[in-house]
Amino acid sequence: MVGRLLGWIFVALALMCLGADTMAMLERGEFGLLGLGALWAALDANSMIAVGDAVAGYTFPELWNPGITTLLRVPGLLLFGLIGVLLLILFRKRERPARLFTS
């Protein structure tokens, strides 16, 4: 049940990213999907900078750049949609086999 709930949450996040991508496409007049970094920067750029500084300062700097920055270039629609669909497939309701013997 928790897996399906998480799957639906990721699908909802993917749909939110689709809405943000649609608005950005209408503003720019050209097709293009926004990466996670662009979406995060649109929500709160200061927190992205603070997290980057914290990760680079308190852990390995290579973890942030190129590690996490590469992940932040992935389109949010694709990443959240893929994770959500995979979770929904993995945790789907399976039909129980018919009982051979009933009491």
Automatic annotation (TrEMBL):
The chain crosses the membrane at residues 71-91. It comes from the Bacteria. Keywords: Membrane, Transmembrane, Transmembrane helix. The keyword Transmembrane helix applies. This is Uncharacterized protein. It comes from Zavarzinia aquatilis.
